[in-house]
Predict the structure.
Amino acid sequence: MVPAHAAEIDASDPPLLSPGEIASCNAWLKAKAVARVHPTDIVVGCDTVVALGASALGKPRSRDEARAMLYRLSGRTHAVISAVAIIRPRPSHRLSIFREVTLVRFRRLSDAEIDRYLERVDVMDKAGAYALQEHGRSIVEAIRGSADNVVGLPVDRLLQELGR
């Protein structure tokens, strides 16, 4: 795994994009940044966005923003959208992008439960201010779709796409 040094598009950045478009653009930016350094390799870039309706919830910038995100998600169903960009090596340098969507329903959370979750999990680098793999089952009631997608990489779908 190679970290991508690319400036990501934020939900508040102009032009205003849908949550899926934000994820797709960021996945492409990350893949492109790594492909420049590794032009002979297949490069995979991924970005995950939490969408509550038409609103994208990115990574919180503060603990207060994280608390507000969890409060908004409490008792509601939201979409986790992961976009994956695959860049094939030269000479074709072909790009393909796909998106995977998983629906996640949160339990209704009290203020104390939100505070307890924030004490247990570092959410500052997590879209929507939560991580399923880190005590997420304590706040998530149901998942419809790929749990891997919620963690941040839809592995089964990626393997299908790479096999094509």
Summary: The beta strands are 43-52, 55-57, 77-87, 95-106, 140-144. The two ends are 22 Å apart (CA to CA). The helical segments are 19-37, 63-73, 111-120, 147-151, 155-163.
